[in-house]
Every structure is written in C-alpha cells, then in structure tokens.
Design brief:
The complex is a heterodimer. By secondary structure, chain A is an all-beta fold. Helices cover 0% and strands 49% of the residues of chain A. In chain A, the strands form two sheets. In chain A, strands 2, 4, 5, 8, 9 and 10 form a six-stranded mixed β-sheet that branches. Chain A has a four-stranded antiparallel β-sheet with strand order 1-3-7-6, with no helix packed on it. In chain A, strand 6 and strand 7 form a beta hairpin. The N and C termini of chain A lie far apart (37 Å). Helices cover 0% and strands 47% of the residues of chain B. By secondary structure, chain B is mainly β. The termini of chain B are far apart. Classes of the chains: A mainly beta, B mainly beta. At the A-B interface, strand 4, strand 5 and strand 9 of A face strand 4 and strand 8 of B.
Chain lengths: 113, 111
C-alpha cells in the first residue's frame, strides 16, 4: 500500500516569504507528526496530531510555524516570514494510535535564500 | 524522555555481524527501547523495539541487558544497504508519542 507522501520534495524560497508543506499520511492512521532535520540540530520534533485531540505543539520553534490537519487526514505545515535558519528537511510521519512504529515520508527539503 | 548514549560512528565489513550498542542508564520501568535507522537521503525507518526480553525480526535482533541499562542492536549479516545512521530511542508507553532523536551511530559498511 501507499506510504506517507510529502509535497513538494524540494522548495526554494526567499527570506520573508511564506511556505506551505503538505503531508498525506497512510490511510487510517490517526496520529500524524512533523519533524525537521537540519545540519545544526539533528532530528527534532515539531508537532503531533492525534484524532480530534488538541495537537501537541510543544516542538514548534516560534509563532511563525503553524500546522493544521483537515478531516483527520492531510496535514499542512505553514512557515510564515521564512528565515534562513528555517532551511532544513521537514519530515512527516504517521501511525495508528499509540506508541507503535512511526512511518516516515521522504521529506521536503526547504531552502531559504 | 530518558537519554540514550551511542557511539558517533562504527565501521564493519559486508557479510559480517554488526553489534550497535546503546546505553540508557536512567531508563524507567515503562520505557520501551526503540531503534530506527535513516538511510542516506531518506526518512527514518523503524527497525525493532523491545521492553525486557530479546527480540528478533526480519531486519535485526535486539539484545537487552538484564538490568535494562543498555541494549545492543544486532545486524546478523551486514550488507552495503545497511549503511545508515542508527538511532536508539526510549519511549514511555504512557507518555508523549513523539520520538526524541539523539545523534545516533553512523554505520559504514565496507565491501
């Protein structure tokens, strides 16, 4: 079956512009996670959605970052007024509820010039 | 989440076994030990997890020390495709569901 998909695979933007990154989780997975991976920080958690519960936003680095998950499926991560330090690979993962295996997408490589 | 300690890098030869160590001296009774790996230019992928007993699956084996303060991921016969960064992660069964990644071990496989 289809895995987690993300789009675009690469995004180049200018400093100060807004960007939207999309994640399509595996069908039926109620939990969805966003992580990012940058050279200086390694892999870090950003936000977690579980069903209809309030999302865990504890990893969002600033109020320029936000995410939503519509209809319990597709999620969009939005970064407003991008900065060069936002350059990273943004990874999405999904799983069934609980502490089981997380399935990761291929990531979106964001470059802020 | 409790912290884990892994060597920064390891090297092995193709078709030989590889033992990747992980120390987690502050592990709690409800922490599961998870291993993920990340191949070049890909997202992380799940390898194996366990609580107390040793575990085997098609990818690897996980050996857990009796006091649970350390564990070892075993690749029985390494291939070039096993070259990746391997992450050892503790997850509380009742705690936050996010994965907390450390620096991991970069495994190089020599042909």
């Amino acid at each position: 079956g289809a895995g987690v998909s993300q789009s675009p695979s690469n995004k180049v933007t200018e400093k100060g512009k807004d960007v939207e990154l999309r994640c399509d989780p595996i069908s039926g997975h109620t939990a969805l996670y966003w992580y990012r991976q940058s050279l200086g920080q390694g892999l870090e958690f950003l936000i977690y959605f579980q069903g209809n519960s309030a999302p865990d936003k504890s990893g969002l680095p600033s109020d320029r970052f936000s995410a939503e998950r519509t209809g319990g499926s597709v999620s969009t991560l939005t970064i407003q007024r991008t900065q060069q330090e936002d350059s990273a690979v943004y990874l999405c993962a999904s799983n069934l509820a609980g502490p089981g295996e997380q399935f990761f997408g291929p990531g979106t490589r964001l470059t802020v010039l | 989440d409790a912290k884990t300690t892994q060597p920064n890098s390891m090297e092995s030869n193709e078709e030989e076994p590889v033992h990747l160590p992980c120390n987690h001296s502050t592990i709690s009774g409800t922490d599961y030990i998870h291993w993920y790996r990340q191949l070049p230019s890909q997202g992380p992928e799940y390898v194996i997890h366990g609580l107390t007993s040793n575990v085997n699956n098609r990818m690897a084996s996980l050996a857990i020390a009796e006091d649970r303060k350390s564990s070892t991921l075993i690749l029985h016969r390494a291939t070039l495709r096993d070259a990746a960064v391997y992450y050892c992660i503790l997850r509380d069964v009742g705690g936050a569901q996010k994965l907390v990644f450390g620096q991991g071990t970069r495994l190089t496989i020599n042909p």
